[in-house]
Fold each of these.
Amino acid sequence: MDSKTQPNPDQNFPRLSNIGLSGILVSFSDVLSEAANRAALAFRAHLEVATWDGIEETTTSLTSVYVGFDPKYISHATMEKDLQDLLKSRNWLLSELPQKRKLWRVPTVFGGEFGPQLDEAAELAQMTVQDAVMQLSNSPVQVLTIGYAPGQPYLGTLGEHWNIPRQTALTAKVPAGALVVAIRQLVLFTADSPTGWRHIGQTGFRGFRPQSDTPFPLRPGDEVIFDAIDAEKYANLAVQDSSGNFGATWEEIQ
Amino acid sequence: MSALIIRRAGPALSVQDKGRIGYMVQGLSRGGAADRLALAEGAVLLGQSGDFAALEMPGFGGVFEVTQDTRIALTGAPMTASIDGEPLLWNATHRVAAGQQLTIGAPLRGLYGYLHVGGGFATDPVMGSRAAHLTARVGNAVVAGMSLPIGNDENADQADVKLPMNERFQGGILRITPSAQTARFSKAERARFEATEFTRSPRGNRQGVQLDFEGAPFTAAQQLHILSEIIVPGDIQMTGDGVPFILLPECQTTGGYPRIATVVPQDQPLAAQAPTGARLRFQFIKLKEGLETLRSEAQILADLKRTLQPLVRDPRDIRDLLSYQMISGVTAGHDE
């Protein structure tokens, strides 16, 4: 067994908990791990195919699956037992990533006015700004989940150095396309938004395209490389590409 | 097709129905009417489906006309309302003739008023719903100059009716159930949360409302390092500086700030309708007790139907209207 498929040793997981009166959260870990992320994606995929009576909606977070159901139709006790049985039916931590994944390359300006908190983030990660940009722009990160806002990806997992906290105070607004960092993850904002994460770079990529045939271009499991470009090239892209890709390209991962 | 013409509009008017189910996985929250009970009240008053869309009016209505004679119902936060200067009873149906002017002003209590039409608004659905989700840039606000198409009213001959006001417009006690992250708050912190009197801050919209309070910030274990987790409407999120937000239908679908509890669906209209400065308190109840409060939509509609009364233009209604106006000091005519 290679390190990638090492099961999570935490005996408290998987764990069920309630969210509101009509939701159960199936959590595979409370710390980010690729195995727990793959488990969550695979567990939800199974529920979507199985279409249990009473389930109204399912979704994933980084390491959990949310099961929304009608408690008037199926009791919490029955739903919990069915979910426990499904959990025990196999080792979900050994699941594969979804098929037909894409590798995206997204042109990104790091630092300066396009990423005003890059210096601060690098300092928290205990590295030079140069090394930070090198690390963040050279290796692919995986779309772990889509959430917060339509089409908005959480990406990771960054190295342990990047386990930097969120800010205590919210930044009032970062623009659409902003790349932000905290707790070993990146988020690529799809709309102007307040955030507690640190703004380190800027892209023109649109993760939500309401008028398009493919309104949600990114899927969990896709990988992204944030290619570092300079401000001048960014300005040129703005003129050349109004598709929402803003110079981004993709190929299927074989 | 008949239509509602918007002559003047308050800020952020929008068409709302029950919202969209099935898009959380793409990051799109359910959305829909901030006060779901008001949506049901409109359906029962007009004798039509609970799926129909209404016009949501946060904090102010507008001036409206219709292209053909139309039945309307007014629900949610009671607002000053009149047809050609004739004051209207809230939580009741009325008839607007083509050429008449329907004027809806500021709320007397609460925040979100609703204008329903017989046949419902027949705007084009997007992803299975007519609800604007302005936070997600789905749909548009309704502004002056627009016309909203109206569906065919199958009960056009129904006599006018009214419903008793279900008071939920001035704050109060919100029942909450424990959620996935409740245990991250210490027992003492949870007890303090229940003992604290909050006021609805001026900061709020369809995403959520901030609560003000006296005392230390509320904190959870390791709160700046918690993994982003699923959010549902009604969740009470503690931001990094320890201030609670009650999240509403246009909330984000995931978030990293810990949630101390979730407001039960029955009390969510009260949370949404609390105007700035309204006092709010929280009371933990067990899941089992929460489930006992849960009513299906069919039950809610059936319960409301039993309380329907004929609208008789009698002196009692006139007295109601007078008392509305005395509370507010606002008359039906107004300037923006």
Amino acid sequence: MGLFNRDTAGQTSPSTSVTLERGAMTFFAETIGETNPIHFDLEAARAAGHPDIMATATYAVVVGTMAGKDLTRRGKPDMLALIGADMRYLLHGTEQYSYHGPMFAGDTVDVETEVTGFADAKGGKLEIATLTQRITHPTRGLLVEARRDLIHRLG
Amino acid sequence: MTITPQTATVGDTLPPLTFGPISRTTLALYAGASGDHNPIHIDIDFARKAGMDDVFAHGMLSMAQLGRLVTNWAGQDKVTSLSTRFSALTPVGAIITCTGEVTEQLIHEGAPHLRVRLSATLADGTQTLKGEALIRAA
């Protein structure tokens, strides 16, 4: 029953380094319609006392995706492959962020993802995988903890 | 009078925000900008094979709007947490309206906070995101 590989519960992905790039962050900020220039204008960010442009509130998901792509490039399964996600039936159920510090362009952060667990809902029509991802800076410590539920719609 | 995290009380609402219409171009750009290349959002052939009538918007594109709603009001440094449940799909062409309402004043990890209920809705009233933020009040 279910499509996820539930044997992966409790496993943690290899820790991966991701460097936040100003151009990519600016493209993201523009795409979501961000209007606060600290997220795309270096001068405005510096004038506000920041070392570089600041990541927007949901940029953590992008950092997490980049970490997955880095794993794939190195011949290791990313989190979606690890848990056996089937993109035809995959939905995003929930997304939660706890913020501990800002992320800036130029930061190189470590990303670690844990398979927190699996569950069923709606009489087996929905299959839920819960992942927890921690983005940590080598000197500033934990910056963002993200928790997300991914869902297979089976019914 | 403009409310701020320092002055807000239960029942106050944040300045609302609208986003869209969300075109196929927006979805293509979001796929590229976010690295989320799930074809269900950008490839109608794939979507149809998966049993959908059409592609639909990335939920995270709408959550980004909830993020803008709270950070443009309070500043990223005041936001302790942001969370959402994706309760309905957002179709191509949608214009979403994002709103926030202070529901509680509380102490979280020793600091005064506001609990803000967040929502994204389609023009027909369908709620697509049901979210919450904790915002430092001082």
